[in-house]
């Protein structure tokens, strides 16, 4: 009962935030006026906020910004010894620093390090937290550019990447994250610059419990669908996520922007039905997968009448299932329970959320553009069935538009399948796995699904410190992030150049329940026909046994 | 062969007429025998160079080679069965294309026969006529064609008038009149002059004439992929890559799980998953779409134009001939003051009985309907002497027993009556009525009996029956209709209201038309129009779909991207339907093809891994006998479904004008849900047979 109440409260909170936040974000990206602090930033980085960029320039700006971020973050970790609040944690080992830099810039936040022993507060606050903000802002900028492609006509200008990134931070992420951090402190999340507190353990031996400036990073970790914990145990750690209240609030934070972006989309294309129909797809798939995970965990008892292995007693089955479903349905990857210990179908459900290509409701910005790409593919096929060459929101989907969409759709399955196939073919992989048989395969499949989708959650159980995993997962994160971004921006450029086709009753109407069914069907069918063979050998084989 | 007759078999000619007159989108009967006839062509298409044009089928072709090699190296009933059926899959795909192409062959042969051995009488530089082969003619040459001779090439009449038999290209046996100057000056090579003598200036290079283009089109020889077809091919190729990756990476996962798969099984899985159904039928759908247009006697210069026709959202229709009958018809009688209506009716009837013009017949029909007078002439009336219409008298009528009955232009009738017969009141009355009729957009015909003015017959444009329903259908399809007319706005609006057209362009000049098209296009609409005159050429070129009438000028035909051989402007509506139908067929078969994959997974996946994961038997919902029979059944189903869908690909998915939502719901249900369900039943049924084969079951 308490479980249903949590879901109910969560939905009410999201519904309440949807309209004001969605409308606000639409204003942020359409308004001419700059804030004072923004003008200061533009002056410092010498950007004319009123000059708009072509798709190619916009893309270069986004890529350059991200790669500069990788270099800076890498250097920051390597120079940790010189920074304050490092507590003698020294320079981060090169391979780990490299992997972490990619991981945080790509909004994946996969962690192959133990923060308590390797990352000081300075790197956390000036490195990782900064990327938590800007990588989320980049995702939103790309999504907004795609929307601009739909609403603009006969122009080669998409907007200004620098303005979009800055405004995303100053007007959306920073204000909400600041308020949320205070709220988290109120629920009991710690906020301290001390390295830890010395305690006397129950066994009488002294030990140190690590402390960190947690609340400030925790809020953006969820809000920006990042997921990199300041403690190794992530949101299962009582300092990051002390009680059911903080748990529910964190789930709300990680869903709120992707959900509200559907309203931003509807507002910007001047048809709220378009946004609502996509929201319906997200909601139905999110709800369906929640039912799967929840049921699977509640009905496959390991102890306490349900599968409580790897879960925190303070969250229980509903709090864990809700978190797991939301963290994999967005590209967050924070965890409050051990997904490896989930039942076959429960863990498989979390994996499937990612294999849907992260759009239920997906990451900040990435979720919206991913579902728009699927909508384009769905419209391309269905549009033919009403006897017209396909068009979506008044833009024709021709050869080049379909090519861009196809690149986005192809990237993730290619990375996941090739990575998993390659890894599993190596004899050394068997040693890295905790489990053998189908569950072992699940561990590997989950790792590549998480990296390629920039989710960052770990199934756990797979030791990925080897050079092979660090490299291939790093490549999967990079390509999984930037190939789609390049294709989406190219698509936005193509769309912006077109004249808008006038809608008529002969046009396939999008923004209808039938359209939602179509998009949801495409999401499920594409994931099913791509991954059924792999899933049959992992969660299906395990779960049916 | 220099004499030209309708070389088509009667059945085909009949079909031409049926589709020309009928509303239904040309079905084009498909005979199973065509499959057998096309088999040799299909086998010739096994050439890998041909297969490369179609990425999906090329993968199947490669898979067939691989499986054949492994069947030779490691023979088994299973391996050979799979190899055989994979080759069948490729052959069936070729067959679909071959059948589609073959259907155009008969038409092409008939056309080709008109081209050979034609002798041209060219007027040399010294004005002397010399005999040269038609193939030697160049653009700008002038040739003389006399009665009984075949016109040697496409051109324009520069001198003379003639009746021409165009049945070779239109299938229409009634001769047409062609004359120099004006909008009926163009002639087509291969047609025959029946009377008189004309001088034609050649406008097409040898090998690029109308007939040449038509042959190339119906044979599908120069077929280029249309933009949408290319976009679809990209999507299908991407899916093929995904499945290739899924199957290739399955092997290490299978190895890890403890059971490496044989090459034969992996290829079988791959072929079943990639969208072979649509891949096999895609080009047949395109060829058949063009073929359906040709059956309707419309010739498109490219497949791109056919596709654009499906997208059209604004139709510009000429009023005359399309919305109204070109001829004016009697709609009312207006007697002068003091004249009985019955008297006017009787006189108008007698004056028109012998008049075979549509106007004359319409008067007889009107009085028969409204006054109960007989439509046939009595024996007495048949003795009347007919006075035909002439440009000088501007009247027609009869002389019966010394009584002269006349009908004609009001001023002409008044002049004929003379001042002594027509009183000032009569004259004023006739003129007042006539002015009122003219203001309504009608044509007044004054009627006089001997020396007495009786009244006026009102002729007006009559909207074709059923046209309002047609426009309503177009509206549900999201297509806006605009009537183009030279009439004044008042008349135009009256006709527009009656016909249910959405918009009107009255007192239209060619410039107005062009401006309207540009305006519509700027607001993101695709425009289709028909035209025949040289001054229509700019608008025809600007329109997204410009259908030129075959009776029109060479300039119009050059500017448009389709030519209607029947010169029937109403056909524009049918052209739109053919375009839509082609796109729907493509989308429906793609959806069907992808939805099929689900059932194939349920057949093949448990079969592959039953040995290591017996629990996967839960997925074997079809209760297929053995792993081998399951995989073979899926492959056989995959091949047979192509053959089963060839008729649908050629005929096109049934299209009824409806809103997009209803069309989508219906097609999603039939081809989406049907695509999920049908293969479960099909594979189950095939397995019942296959399990009886020793070594499989």
Helix content of chain B: 40-55%
Strand arrangement in the largest pleated sheet of chain A: 1-2
Assign the structural class of chain A, choosing from mainly alpha, mainly beta, alpha/beta, alpha+beta, or little secondary structure.
Answer: mainly alpha
Poorly predicted segments of chain A: none
Number of helices of chain A: 18
Q: Kindly state the mean pLDDT of chain A as a whole number?
A: 93
What is the SS-derived class of chain B?
Answer: alpha+beta
For this structure, the quaternary state is heterodimer
> What is the average of the pLDDT values of chain B?
84
Helical residue percent of chain A? 55-70%
Radius of gyration of chain A: 22 Å
Largest interface: A-B, 63 and 73 residues
Order of helix and strand elements from N to C terminus of chain A: HHEHHHHEHEEHHHHHHEEHHHHH
Specify the overall morphology of chain B: elongated
Major beta sheet summary of chain A: 2 strands, antiparallel
Distance between the termini of chain A: 31 Å
Give a quick rundown of the structure.
By secondary structure, chain A is mostly helical. Chain A has helices at 2-30, 36-45, 55-78, 94-105, 115-118, 121-151, 161-187, 214-223, 244-268, 272-299, 316-329, 344-355, 366-385, 399-425, 427-432, 437-452, 467-497, 513-544, and strands at 53-54, 157-159, 196-200, 206-210, 391-392, 395-396.
Overview of this protein structure:
The complex is a heterodimer of chains A (about 550) and B (about 700). By secondary structure, chain A is mainly alpha-helical. Chain A has a domain at about 365-545. Chain A contains 18 helices and six strands. Chain A has a two-stranded antiparallel sheet. Chain A has a two-stranded antiparallel ribbon with strand order 3-4. Chain A has a two-stranded antiparallel ribbon with strand order 5-6. In chain A, strand 5 and strand 6 (about 395) form a beta hairpin. In chain A, helix 1 runs parallel beside helix 9 (about 245-270). The radius of gyration of chain A is 22 Å and the shape is globular. Chain B has about 700 residues and is of the alpha+beta class. Chain B contains 25 helices and 22 strands. Chain B has a seven-stranded mixed sheet, with helices on both faces. In chain B, strands 2-1-3-9-4-7 form a six-stranded antiparallel sheet, with no helix packed on it. In chain B, strand 18 (about 480-485), helix 19 and strand 19 form a beta-alpha-beta unit. Chain B is elongated, with a radius of gyration of 33 Å. Chain B starts with 9 loop residues before the first helix and ends in a 7-residue tail after the last helix. Residues about 1-30 of chain B have low confidence and may be disordered. Chains A and B meet through helix 13, helix 14, helix 16 and helix 18 of A and helix 9, helix 12, helix 23 and helix 25 of B.
